[in-house]
Amino acid sequence: MRPLRTSLSVAAVALAVSLAGCSTAAMSSTSTSSAAVSSTQQVVSASTISEDTHFDSDDLTWDAASEVAVTLSDGGSKASTGVTVDGNTVTISAAGTYRLSGSLTDGKIVVAAGDSDTVRIILDGVQLGNSTGSPFVVQSADEAIVYLQEGSTNTVTDASTYTDQADDAPNAAIYSMADLTIAGPGSLTVNGKYKDGIASKDGLVLASGNVTVDAADDGIRGKDYTALLDGTYTVTSGDDGVKSDNDTDEGRGWLLVSGGSLTVNAGDDGVKAYNTLTVSGGSVTVAKSGEGLEAQHIVISGGDTTITSNDDGVNAAGGSSSTSADTGMGGPGGGMGGGSQEVGDYTVDVSGGTLTINSEGDGLDSNGSATISGGTIVVNGPTNDGNGALDVNGDLTVAGGTVAAAGSAGMAVTPGATSTQSGVQLTFDSSVAAGTPIHIVDSSGKVVATFVTTKTIASLVYSSTAIIDGQTYTVYTGGSADAKAGLTTGSIDGAESMGTVTAGQYTQAQGPGGRR
After folding, report:
1. Can you tell me the distance from the alpha carbon of 193 to that of 236, in angstroms, rounded to the nearest whole number?
2. Which of 98, 106, 145, 199 allows an S-S link to 181, with CB 3.0 to 4.6 Å?
3. Distances in Å between the alpha carbon of 297 and those of 366, 421, 512?
4. pLDDT tens-digit map of 269-290
5. SS3 52
6. Which pTM was predicted?
């Protein structure tokens, strides 16, 4: 028998974004989504993406009769108005819509338009390669739109070493000095063999498309902002997967996922923003990473997010705040009682959606505060006592939603006194093996929660509306569960009682919102 040693009480912002879709054939159209930014934390809403980014519905609407056909061929590319051909370099120098087809095994598409020009490039079966640098460079324009024609397959591959090594030289297979949009129902494969796969030095909107990126360094990078509105994006990267990294301009450096599907396998951080990272819809799967999501402010108000990380799963750190350090020890409302810890301008806010974390480091980590007011959070946290399933330097407030955070017991964090939703904390004298159902049963014999861990654990924090403050609950292990992992339903038939806990109580060693 593994007796329980303790009990617990567990106690935002709500942001939503809708997305743009696109039509096909001769003309394309889309609806609008939005993102708004502010000084310290960007607030993303459904109504202002056309105001606060370069993207709007007109970008994906055009007259097919105005298209300029560009046929690519090694040594024989052909085009007309607004396009010049010099060997295997094809340069677009005027606003307009250009339909590209064919291939250049060692060539380049260059956009060198006016600063007020919008250049729309339709990729309709294009294969681009370059042996000395980037094969697709937007040098100048107000906005460049890459539209993937329905039914088309397109590939862009750069060189593994670039001849131009200047600091401001292109460093991505698709590289833009202007605002960049990628859209359309077709497919695109980007092989960034030198550094990045897709990079914009301004804003980047991923409006749709079936896009696969394999990059030596960062997969997809929008300096001012990166917004995924729809489409399917699969990214494999040697460094960060998808990011926005403007650290100098006020209100920039934010990243939004409001729709579509994003899958990341990253050598370092999976999805990263300098300022605010928001998931309000769609699905985000970080299948491999150092840290799964990282930003100064992390907001999850919708969608389905699944993270696997070698370090922290969700990490509110970095950014512009310099008043906090991540030492692995918490402060009031989330840290070790008696420990001293700086609390910086870092936040994690979960108000909706699902968040599933499998981390070797801390599961949900904030160098400032964290608020949970909705959604479902499942953490399969660390097995070592140097990290915790929950790690918050400041206040950890639980006011709604469902939380199941399992992991080691040595650095376990409980929600603080600001929490208004109760819960229980289970700490076992001996570890519970992976795959073992854990049941929380009320005084009437009803199973109010069943959790199946994917790792060997020593503690579990659980909070939901089903837990009533002050009530006594009996904890069982074994029996049966209706799923192999996570929160599910189950039966205590054949299970073993581990003892009782009282919702809303903490052990003396932990204190409210403290660590054991």
Report:
1. 12
2. 145
3. 9, 23, 24
4. 999 999 999 999 999 999 999 9
5. helix
6. 0.88
Token pair 């993207």 is found at 55
Report angle CA 398, 403, 406 to the nearest 5 degrees.
Answer: 125
Residue 50 DSSP label = H
* Residue whose C-alpha is closest to residue 452's, from 420, 419, 480: 480
CA distance to 31, 74, 102, 182, 204, per residue, from 20 (Å): 5, 36, 29, 12, 14
Contacts of residue 297, defined as CB under 8 A and 6 or more positions apart, other chains included, come to 40, 41, 42, 275, 276, 277, 316, 319, 346, 347, 348, 349
The Cβ of residue 13 has, within 10 Å, a number of other Cβ atoms equal to 18
State which H helix or E strand residue 430 sits in: strand 423-432
CB atoms within 10 A of CB 25: 8
Spatial neighbors of 300 by CB under 8 A, at least 6 apart, are 278, 279, 280, 349, 350, 351, 352, 353, 355, 375
Bridge partners of 144, per DSSP, are 119, 180
Task: Report the residue count for the chain.
Answer: 516
Residue 505 near residue 493, CB atoms below 8 Å? no
Handedness of CA 150, 200, 246, 52 (dihedral sign): negative
The whole-angstrom separation of Cα 89 and Cα 87 is: 6
CA distance 57 to 47: 13
| Closest among 465, 462, 464, 474 to 502, alpha carbons compared | 474
Please tell me the distance from the alpha carbon of residue 240 to that of residue 227, in angstroms, as a whole number.
16
* Residue whose structure tokens are 């990490």: 315
Question: How far is Cα 328 from Cα 336, in angstroms, rounded to an integer?
Answer: 10
Place 190 in a pLDDT band, splitting at 50, 70 and 90: very high
Round to whole Å and give the CA distance between 313 and 270. Answer: 9
